[in-house]
Each structure stands twice: as C-alpha cells, then as structure tokens.
Amino acid sequence: MTTYDVHAHICPTELIDLLRVDGHRFDTEVLTGPDGDVSLVFAGRQKVGPLPPELGDAPARLAAMDSAGVDVQLVSHRTELSAYALAGDSGVRYARAFNEILAAEVSRAPDRFVALGTIPLQHPTAAAEELRHAVRDLGMAGVEIASTVDGTALDAVELEPVWEVANELRCLVLLHPLPLRGVDLSRYFLANMVGRPAESTIAAAHLVFSGVFDRNPDLVVCMVHGGGFLPYQIGRMQKGYQVVPHLAARHLRTPPLEIVKRLYYDSLVHIPQVISYLVDLVGADRVVMGSDYPYEMHERQPVKAIEAVPSLTDEQRSLILGGNVERILAGIKR
C-alpha cells in the first residue's frame, strides 16, 4: 500500500532565486536576514517569513518522509505564499512562475511527490485559467487556496468561475487557513492553536451556507487540521439551518450536515480520539493523512498516528493512509 501525506509545504529554492533576480516583475522583494534566513515581501506590504529552510531542502524532505513511512507527499506552498496582495498582472505572473517551478521540482522525483499549485484568486478569471493550466498542462493534482482573498471571504460571487472549473476538473482543492484577523491572539501561541482552526471554520462555513457545494456537486475540497472546528460544531450549524432558515438556509438545497460529509479532512488532530470522531461523523472514506511538514506543529510520524487509533479497522486505516487519495487522483478530469 502506498501512503500519501496531503498536507506538506514547500517553497522551491528556484522560486527564491528567480525573485532575487527578477522580483520587480512580480512586485516582490526578497529579504535576507543576518543568519541567512529568507523572507518575502509582496506588494510592499505583506511580509512572509522567515521561511524554514526545510521548505526548499529536498534531501531533508525525503529523509523525513522515509523516517515517517510516507511514500508520497502532495506538496503545496505555505499559505501566505498565495500572495493575494499582488495586484494587476504581477499576481498572475507570480502564480504562473510558482506553478512552473513547482512542476519542475516535482518532476525530479515523480514517484515521491505530487504537486498542488497556487492560483491568483485576487484575479478570479485568471485564477480559473491558471487552475486549468496547472491541472491539464502541468499535471498537478489541484491547488491549495487560502481561507480569504486579502480579506475577502470565499463566498464572493466573483469567485464562482473558480469553483466551476474546479468542479469540472474534479481536482483537489486544499483549503488552508491564514492567520485569523481582528482578534488579539498574540499570547500563548493562540494564533496558531485557536486562530488558524477558527479561520478554517469561518472559510468553510461561508462556502457551505452560500450554496457553493450545491451549485458544484463534484467539488473535491479537503480541509487541513481536521477541518478546524467545523466537524465538531456542525450540530450547531445544522440547528441554525433548521430554526433560522431565512438566514441560514436561504442559499441551500442540502442540509449543512450532509455537505460536511462530502468534504475531506486531514488527520492532523494530534490525538486518536478525534480521528475516531471524524471517522464516525463523515466516514473513513473522507479522512486523509496529513502532517503539515515542516512546521513546528507538524506530525513527525503521521503513519504511526493513524496506526495507533484503536477504533479503526484495517480497511479504514488503508483508506486514510492512501486509498482515499488514490481515488481522488484517479477521478481528476485532465
């Protein structure tokens, strides 16, 4: 059985090299710290970094995968590298360059890596075109998108062309949170532990209640971090749909609980009881293995984490470790 990690981040060194030389074309600046650490600044206002060196270290990545028993990583950018702050053609050029470079990087070890690209959601028409290019021309399995588009929620009507193309292609859309805005979570590491899952929940709820999944029934969306808080508070959302329909149900044909069961969720929940709950709620055929490599909260042994869940059957473990991803990959309409 082949094991797949759907949640692993990357930033090829070739991208940094390109931006050092030609950053003006992408309205992007590369900053190098006194210790050699690298940060990027998009549009003069969005700083991302320092970037962990492991993001671009292929030998270290492969060694970590081998140690963890991970056969294949679906690699995607750190979410802030979506660069939605880039206006005009610079954002479109950046996404195209990132995808071309990532495709070349993955092609060096096609038995170990599958690419998830980026699309310029701040330019929805171009984003839909880039999605087609990434999947059909570059052979990518899909894309990673962030939880908001420079502050705009994912239910914005302007994004409908993107959902339509993703629905047509049946490619994977990995939904990853940005930091939660407007709340002081600067203490106790709460920005990560609470803010990121909350941000995912809000983003997914906008998609669910706006009817995006009803209009696009073949969308393949995977939420990281076990879905944020969505699967664990879906009962409250289902209740709201029932008792306040003029607000919660006006765009829906399908109850939110049933929509939530159509999404995929990675296994990065850190304790086996939560994996058991996820499987009970949505089924083992909707849970996939994820590690969040190489960040501090990442699961170093994601295969063992699945194998250690006592409630799972062998068939369920097989689905989570790889069978579900193989089904997703086989269903892409290239």
TrEMBL record:
A single GO BP: secondary metabolic process
Cellular component GO terms held in the UniProt record: cytoplasm
Domain of life: Bacteria
GO molecular function, one term: hydrolase activity
SUPFAM superfamilies given in the database record: Metallo-dependent hydrolases (SSF51556)
Ranges of residues in domain Amidohydrolase-related: 4-329
One Pfam family per UniProt: Amidohydro_2
PANTHER family: 2-AMINO-3-CARBOXYLMUCONATE-6-SEMIALDEHYDE DECARBOXYLASE, ISO-OROTATE DECARBOXYLASE (EUROFUNG)
Record protein name field: Amidohydrolase
